[in-house]
Amino acid sequence: MRARHRLTFEVPGPHGENGYQVEIHEYFDRIGFSYQPISETATHVERVAPVQVVEKLAATASGIFRDLELQPKALVIGIKESLGIGDVGYEGRAIVSRNGLVYIELELCSFPLQDVDYWEGILWHEAMHAKYILGRRWPSIWPFYLPDAGSVWALDCLLHFSIDGWLEKNNKPFVFWTPSEQPDADFKSSRLHELREGLQNSGCTVEESVLTKIAADLWGRETNIWEVWKIMQRLGLTISEATRLGRYLRGHKTRFIKSS
Length: 260
Hints:
Strand order of the largest sheet: 3-4-5-7-6
Number of helices: 9
Number of strands: 7
Number of domains: 2
Helix content: 40-55%
Structural class: alpha/beta
Order of helices and strands: EEEEHHEEEHHHHHHH
Distance between the termini: 49 Å
Radius of gyration: 19 Å
Shape: globular
Strand content: 15-25%
């Protein structure tokens, strides 16, 4: 029998959505695995997610969560097959329920699952997202706001300076893409490029010295959603108080002021 979990969130979706179903097909090392292949035939699933590779991925995830001293209510890893390697996708997404269940979805859009070393870097990054939520420095948010929800994109973009800087400073595996116009960019520079590009797309003009200072200050340092929100406002980015996330931030303004 397949197990199912229903994840709910502190901040519901833009239309009140607050229930995300995750189906578990099998367990390895007490970690649930959920498969979303193009074809559900046994031979195709085995080709996309070979048992030996999944076992290795489970051991890797267990080690990461142990190193980070994370004890979620449950850990589930989703393997989602894209239509073809090279498709545009998010590759990794950490979805954390308000009750502490962690679901990390890996989308096979750039590399097959057999490249475990690559996916280890993705798992480290997503586990850090989970750590922020489990540690109450970040709320559990309905996961499908991006990319068409105004300035919400900046929440993750700014948090990545903290997460990825920590991974780099602690010699943990990490993955990043160099911008085509900056082929020699390092990890921090690639994240700075993403922030700069997001601001340009949002119609915000910010001096380069300001962006560089923000990146240097956040790189590898713990932060929280209240500090990130304050930085967003300094950059000219807003989240409407008419939205559910805006109401959440408004309702926790006292906590925000204390952490400013």
